[in-house]
Write a structure and sequence with these properties.
By secondary structure, this protein is of the alpha+beta class. It has two domains: 161 residues, no CATH class; 180 residues, no CATH class. The chain contains 13 helices and nine strands. The protein has a five-stranded antiparallel beta sheet with strand order 3-2-8-1-9, sandwiched between helices. Strand 2 and strand 3 form a beta hairpin. Helix 2 packs across helix 12 and helix 3 packs antiparallel against helix 13.
Length: 374
């Protein structure tokens, strides 16, 4: 048995060590905070995480110049579109909302086709929906996540004329399919909808390697010539969502600082009390000829081992909690999709902000400690 082993100390002081390990494990709560905050973006971005297969344009704002710009756009559509995306169909661009994990409603912008021919063209030129899907006039396709969020299922009728609060539909529409698509997605076509925008699709069923880049380049190309017409792609929607939720990250940083200060003060006081109780232990080591550096390395190794165990336990606990929450929340269309990078970085930062001051404080105590009592 090595008296300078951190494991030996932990085994001999189980009660005290367990308390410290639990406190250090609690820093992983920061990870859950990151998961909670990142869920807003993750849920939105999940449907758009693949490279764009299409883009859509729509009038941006309420200005008399819009009509003139739209007419001119239709006249020059062929020359504006890149070689990789020459297919253009009329559409009705709708705003659709869903309930977020924080309780407020978030929204996505979705295109509805106006004819079966256009809908079939969309299916044929993208890899989003099954090729053999059969959707008739006034029918919808929903992702499973969105259907759960809305509390609907295949065969249900969504009331039109504003009666269904999540989306405005001109008439009652039927949910034909609920499919395991990523995130919040809805597709369909309705002959009574009016043209409000359009879809830009691949020229052929085999997508060009430059398709995604060409579609994104259209954003600036159209904006320069038609300032009141917006072009949107998967990538642009993701960027916009991140910009809008940036303030949540600042709040999260403030929370990390507060948590770090509270835990640092608590652990520092705990280790100070432990140090005072171990003066005689250190006196014996000093009398045996061990240097202050050796004693310091023992204390540091104990702290780091307990910190490591705490992080592992906290990480396992978070994994279990996320799995359980996903099972519970999925029926409401809410899910923790990806591990939170923000939460991981925040946890490590919080942990470092706690451990480093405690290490420095104990280093100072040991260096100043002159062993004269035996």
């Amino acid at each position: 048995m090595n008296p300078f082993s951190a494991i030996t100390y932990i085994k001999k002081n189980k009660g005290r060590s367990i308390c410290i390990i639990i406190m250090l494990a609690c820093t992983c709560l920061v990870f859950m905070g990151g998961m909670y905050i990142d869920n807003i973006n993750d849920t939105f971005e999940y449907a758009y995480e693949n490279p764009s297969q299409y883009a859509f344009w729509y009038p941006n704002g309420n200005n008399n110049d819009i009509l003139d710009e739209m007419r001119d756009l239709y006249k020059h559509t062929e020359e504006l579109l890149p070689e990789s995306a020459k297919t253009f169909i009329d559409a009705n661009i709708q705003y659709t909302s869903y309930d977020s994990i924080m309780g407020f409603r978030n929204g996505i912008t979705v295109p509805f086709m106006l004819s079966k021919e256009d809908f079939d063209t969309f299916v044929r030129l993208t890899d989003i929906l099954p090729k053999d899907i059969d959707v008739q006039d006034g029918e919808l396709v929903l992702s499973e996540m969105l259907a759960n969020n809305w509390g609907v299922k295949e065969g249900d009728i969504l009331k039109g004329q504003g009666e269904f609060s999540y989306i405005y539909l001109p008439r009652d529409m039927k949910i034909k399919y609920v499919l395991p698509l990523n995130g919040m997605q809805i597709y369909g076509w309705d002959s009574t909808m009016s043209t409000y925008g359009g879809l830009i699709l691949s020229t052929t069923e085999k997508h060009a390697e430059t398709l995604c880049d060409d579609l994104n380049a259209l954003i600036d190309t159209v904006a320069e010539k038609y300032p009141h017409i917006a072009v949107t792609t998967n990538e642009s929607m993701v960027r916009s969502a991140r910009e809008q939720t940036e303030i949540l990250r600042y709040f999260f940083i403030i929370i990390i600082v507060v948590v770090a200060v509270v835990f640092a003060i608590t652990l520092n006081a705990t280790f100070a009390a432990m140090f005072d109780k171990r003066k005689y232990e250190f006196s014996i080591y000093k009398a045996m000829g061990f240097s202050k550096l050796k004693i310091l390395s023992k204390v540091l190794s104990e702290m780091l081992v307990m910190d490591g165990i705490g992080l592992v336990i906290g990480g396992i606990a978070c994994f279990i909690v996320v799995k359980v929450l996903n099972e519970i929340l999925w029926s409401s269309g809410i899910s923790f999709i990806h591990p939170s990078i923000l939460g991981i970085v925040g946890t490590l930062f919080c942990n470092a902000a706690i451990i480093i001051p405690v290490l420095i404080a104990n280093m100072k105590r040991i260096k100043k400690y002159d062993v004269t009592v035996y």
